[in-house]
Write a structure and sequence with these properties.
Length: about 450
């Protein structure tokens, strides 16, 4: 039986405080999914970052913007809370900071005499034993000139709120798909405390990650991220990566591995050069995954790989060797010249009409010329999907094709156009990573069509 899911980033949840978070609206969203038989909620990365979810400054720290101040009030760490205008764009600013500071002061007072409750005090003391969280707190303390304990507190609250939310989702038979970015940024906790895991000489990075020149970018792309030192990772039995994978599988029910191509071979660009002077080199490949799956608690089905685009045969063989669930984006696989979906024959596939980097379905449809619009309608009719609404017709088609999982963005459920997309890759627009729901009213009704 095909399993269904919805893609909605945490920041896109409705919120009274500028940006979606782990608060009551997230619980309401889970209720809606559960009531409609939706098995998965894909949330995109929630690691600490600088407003760019796929550019983490830490793989272990969570994004503190997502702390719910409603939840802080619920456990009596803050008092009165100011409500903001609920807009349809996320607002990334320091609005919550004053509440975080108030909560930290009160928590510190309570911690000294355990007035909150004995259980929370013990949870906190156990949590701050995590070496990676302590590294993050030191990193942020140095960067922001705040005391280390402040960031330990924020991470404890963030982790506690997230795990409670995940537990609630699981109790409602909803599973969370989290996202693992492939590289941290240059200035990150990972590069500071694990420099041997990255290609460096005399304390300086020697290569930058990216992509080679193509039709869209004559100089290639540079990602503001270092590349891994494969030999050093191998010499240490891939402990750095394995520890991360295990942590992510604690945070989420399934993990989407970003840029799977990079585990087979990755592109690296000499520092200061363009993509024209970059080249591919072998990744961690079979050695890493063989070592990872020695832990019998980690299952192949726990991982979903992002293998989109033009990947080489060796990457496909790596994927097929382990039987990973791969992704398919209908916008990329449908051939309207020949009325064929070239990936329709595969079963071990997670299918999307489009994901966070794509146009919405309606936006994509609008971008087609008149001939291709008619060809798309004809394609759907040939597959016995006769709904005159393109969004509904494509959802109907995806439910019929052989892939064993299908995930739809909230924007496509609502039939929104290109002005509501999540991200436009290769741009620095303020519109990226900012689209947000104002409420669930329309979604609550439209989700019934996804059945």
């Amino acid at each position: 039986m095909k399993e269904k899911g919805i893609l909605l980033p945490i920041f896109s949840l409705p919120s009274k405080y500028g940006v979606g978070d782990f608060g009551y609206e997230a619980y309401e969203f889970i209720d809606i999914l559960s009531e409609n038989g939706i098995v998965y909620w894909e949330i995109l990365p929630i690691n600490a970052c600088n407003n760019l979810p796929y550019s983490p400054i830490s793989y272990y720290a969570l994004e503190e913007t997502y702390i719910s101040i409603d939840k802080l009030k619920e456990i009596h760490l803050i008092n009165n809370v100011e409500i903001r205008e609920n807009k349809d764009k996320a607002i990334y600013d320091d609005f919550k900071e004053k509440y975080f500071k108030e909560a930290f002061i009160n928590f510190t007072k309570h911690l000294k005499n355990e007035e909150i409750n004995y259980e929370i005090c013990n949870e906190y003391k156990e949590f701050i034993k995590n070496k990676e969280i302590c590294n993050y707190a030191e990193f942020m303390s140095d960067a922001k000139n705040e005391e280390k304990e402040y960031y330990l507190f924020l991470q404890f609250i963030c982790y506690k709120e997230w795990m409670e939310l995940k537990e609630y989702a699981n109790s409602k038979n909803v599973k969370i798909i989290g996202d693992m970015p492939v590289y941290p940024v240059f200035n990150s906790v990972d590069t500071k405390y694990n420099p041997e895991c990255f290609e460096m000489e005399n304390g300086h990075f020697t290569f930058e990650s990216g992509t080679p020149p193509d039709y869209f970018n004559s100089d290639g792309q540079k990602w503001n991220s270092p590349v891994y030192n494969i030999q050093n990772l191998k010499n240490n039995n891939y402990e750095y990566l394995i520890k991360r994978f295990k942590y992510y599988l604690k945070l989420f029910d399934k993990v989407r591995i970003d840029y799977f191509r990079g585990y087979d071979s990755f592109f690296k660009i000499p520092i200061g050069k363009s993509g024209k002077e970059g080249f591919y080199t072998d990744g961690v490949s079979y050695g890493f995954f063989d070592e990872l799956f020695k832990d019998k608690n980690i299952k192949i089905d726990d991982l979903i790989i992002e293998d989109l685009g033009d990947i080489r045969e060796e990457t496909k063989k790596l994927r097929e060797h382990y039987g990973f669930t791969r992704q398919k984006i209908l916008q990329f696989t449908i051939d309207l010249d020949n009325f064929y979906d070239r990936d329709n024959e595969e079963e071990n596939v997670l299918v999307f009409p489009g994901n966070h980097d794509c146009n919405t379905i309606y936006g994509w449809y609008k971008s087609l010329n008149d001939e291709y619009k008619e060809r798309l309608k004809e394609f759907l009719k040939r597959n016995n999907c006769n709904n005159i609404n393109v969004n509904k017709g494509i959802m109907e088609y995806l439910m019929k094709c052989k892939g064993n999982m299908v995930i739809i963005t909230v924007q496509d459920v609502l039939g929104l156009d290109e002005t509501s997309r999540i991200n436009l890759p290769g741009t620095n627009s303020e519109e990226n990573w900012s689209w947000k729901l104002k409420d669930f009213n329309d979604f609550r009704e439209r989700i019934k069509d996804f059945n």
